[in-house]
Amino acid sequence: MAFEASRNIINFVVESESPQRCKARLERHQRTAERAAKALAEKNMRDLLAQREQAERHRLAEALDADVKRWSSGKEGNLRALISTLQYILGPDSGWHPVPLTDVVTAVAAKKAYRKATLCVHPDKLQQRGATIQQKYICEKVFDLLKRGTNSTQRSEYEPQHKKKGYKRFKACDKFVEESY
After folding, report:
1. What tens digit of pLDDT does each residue of 58-92 get?
2. Where, if anywhere, are coiled coils annotated (predicted)?
3. pTM as predicted
């Protein structure tokens, strides 16, 4: 229907229009139609590739989820353990250099290793490096686990001492008194 309407517009000739002007208008309309058709074909190709990638992701998810769960079992919430064993899930071609557990004992060292790990597995960085679908999927899962690990680590390390030991703060005297349970 839209094509018929555009054809009618092309055939519409203004009587006062010169033949050159009419030809230029017709050529411009044809170029516009060609660009639109090309853009539509490119969009359809991108959509098809995205659908294929999504289907491949679902197929890989079944196999890779078991590997990620096996790697992370018992380490959920333990950022240091996750970082020290990261090489086992990422593989040698990821660019990750193993970090021994003894090197991430302090909070500063753990934070530094966490930053390096997130740079290695961040989804946007992988896109720039042209990673495979399998690498993208594994790194996405690892990135989520590292984020969850750092949240629980921060809560436990940076929480004030009076909240950890069961102390209650009295507002009137601004002192901490041990709670009796």
Report:
1. 888 888 888 889 888 888 878 888 899 998 988 88
2. 23-58
3. 0.58
